[in-house]
Amino acid sequence: MNTPLLEVDNLRVTFPTPRGDIDVVRSVSFTLGRERLGIVGESGSGKSMTGRSILKLIRAPGTVSADRLAFDGIDLLAQSEKQMRAIRGARISMVMQDPKFSLNPVMTIGEQIAEALLTHQRLPRREVGQRVKAMLESVRIDDPERVAKLYPHEVSGGMGQRVMIAMMLIPEPDLLIADEPTSALDVSVQAQVLDIIDELVKRKGMGLIFISHDLNLVSSYCDRILVMNTGRVVEECEAGELRNATHPYTRGLLAAIPRLDETRDELPVLDRSAWANS
Amino acid sequence: MTALSLNNLDISYGETPITHGVSLDIAEGESFALVGESGSGKSTILKAIAGLAPEWTGSITAFGKSRSHGIDRHFARLCQMVFQDPYGSLHPRKTIDATLSEPLTIHGIGSQNERVEAVMASVGLDRKFRFRFPHQLSGGQRQRVAIARALMLEPKILLLDEPTSALDVSVQAEILNLLKRLRREQNLTFLMVTHNLPVVSFLCDRLAVMRQGRIVEIADVADLKQGALREAYSRELMEISATHAA
Amino acid sequence: MTTTVRAWLIDDSPSSRLQARLGRAWRITGALSRNPLAVVGAAIILVLILTAIFAPFIATHGPLKQDLTQRLLAPGAANWMGTDELGRDIWSRVVYGARITLVIVAMVAILAAPAGLIIGAVAGYFGGWTDRILMGITDVFLSMPKLILALALVAALGPGIENAIIAIAITSWPGYARIARAETLTFKNSEFIAAIRLQGASAMRVILGHVLPLCTSSMIVRVTLDMAGIILTAAGLGFIGLGAQPPLPEWGAMIARGRSFILDQWWVATMPGFAIIIVSLGFCFLGDGLRDVLDPKSGEQH
After folding, report:
1. pTM of this prediction?
2. Is the Cβ–Cβ distance between A183 and A212 less than 8 Å?
3. What ipTM does this complex have?
4. Smallest CA–CA distance from C17 into chain B, residue
């Protein structure tokens, strides 16, 4: 493994506003091998924009610039929209927050998964059926033949998100970007969905970028963590070392989370004076 | 004194029953949590108490008075609600001032100017926000407005429907501190719905674990902190919470 | 001075309700003025309104003054748009016609829009039988072609401009009721409506104070876009003799009279026709611009 899977150097995402350009992501750099990277931050930290900019999914008038943005040696910034379409899905996939908005309501689940597969390769019909069934089984859907015939509104949120994961992973991409994949789900279902992602990523040797606001969740499912605040990476550490984070923002976030055996009378609050008056 | 008492409450939406025989007694000044997964009926109970889910049998009593099925003005003075989504619970075309004065106008309460300013101060909102529209505020500020609105009529009971689950953790900490302080200062009774057990541990005295429309267990928060919940399902919920907080 | 007024208007932290409202109006006007078509539309309508107000000063002749020696003159220095078959100055008649058009448009908007708004909001908010009955009535009106219904009404009420206004108003409220109902349904179950109900607000207060303000922007857009149709319907009624009666200088009636000479004296029918087209376009442009600015679905930021 000579070249890393993803190289990001000095990434910047800019949106023009009437009061001048605003950088929502500023000089973010990291490299990713076939490992699990967590990006944590609060709303407005630029974590989702970072994920989207890798797929060049930033909508106009936003612009992406970087000294280097390369996936498996391919310079993503130099790719045309058409070339990007060949990469999206086939080699880099993205799982979004809410399955309700990401699934087509008038197609059955089986059809949608098959379509995700056929967009990128030609296969005989029987094999497609088998692959869809195998994929649904691998996201732990017990009765794949029945579920394949259902429409998105007929399944629960957790099932919908598992279907999304099946759709995203059936073309066997090298990199999966999961943007808050479980925030819309119940806690017990969350664990299940994350376990599935974790298992598939490990088994297929993929890279994973897991974007979330939940520090604890990220630290238990990733190898390495980037903490972002107002567009910048403020802390980078091994997941196991999160407890020993040094940056005051990270420490503030960790302290602000209530614990199950809470004894504090008041939770410590981040000092927002730097941006509270904006 | 018992602030809020539910007795054998069966709530339904049309033909679908949501809860079965829910009974609870919450003392004045107590902070009580309803926990469970989505579909357990915990939010529906709040709605029925508030008057937004009128199809129920059994009884709902607040400070000794039975509640009617609809929304009545007397009950509004006694019990108010804070919603989950700070983006959806404020009228997009009304300034903060208009949102906060409205309950006073409805109930014919005077000295609106002073009252609005006092409540804004007590929830920690700067005066400069008073004539802004909701879209000019952050999520945390909106939730403060929603809490302020609920406090305008000086109710004794506050129903909290996942009041912090849509917020960032640092903002959640601010709102939780605020709720704790308000409860102490105004001797409020809280009934909170949440799926977040650590939040319960911080803010509440007792909790009821719900599953499929029934109460599985009612316990003290001390038991939660020590991991001493009795029922298997409650312990399962705790374990999931604990692994997340690893 | 102008800079301080502007700063006051765009202040992020207004200090009174008035300032907050004016600030919002200022931002909407600003967004509208960045849309060239909307500016053109607004300008046309402004010109129409000014023309109607100052008609006596703008017109070169009396609109009803006949001069049979000056019949059917081509446009020229004395008669900018020529004269009609009774020797009346067409320019002056078109100018005075602006008043009639404006009155028709304004009256229809005042009669039909609030009626539709309230009926739709009430139906949507209460649902159930209220909804079924009110929307049933609405559907009866919607099931008939507008012009035919207006024709039938005017034929029954008798020709004349007042009856034309009533007829057009009666045919246009159902569309507004449908929109208001649809908008109400999307907001009815929102948490901010639930919150105000929990404060003990009466249904009346919720509808008038909280639901209707959310329907108004789409209603303003729709009414503006409909203005063109209203003008055309009024002109159509005038054309077949059921609207404004002679000698009133109503544009549709003027076209009807000019029809007989369209080949030899084209200007008699064409000049009022131009007026109709320009004013209709003006309303369409403005309506489109307003939709871009006010439509809550396009991610409103005002």
Report:
1. 0.85
2. yes
3. 0.89
4. B131
